[in-house]
Amino acid sequence: PGVGKTTVMREIACVLADEFHKRV
Asked: What's the predicted TM-score (pTM) here?
């Protein structure tokens, strides 16, 4: 269960970082 949550968090963080860089 922990691995799934970690994967989701990492994916969301990656997407957010990508969008942030795209905005800037």
From this structure: 0.54
Distance of CA 3 to CAs 7, 8, 9, 17, 24, Å?
6, 9, 10, 21, 31
- Percent of the chain at pLDDT above 70? 92
Helix spans in 1-24 (H): 2-23
Nearest alpha carbon to residue 14 among 22, 4, 3: 22
The upper half-sphere exposure of residue 16, i.e. CA atoms within 13 Å in the direction of its Cβ, equals 6
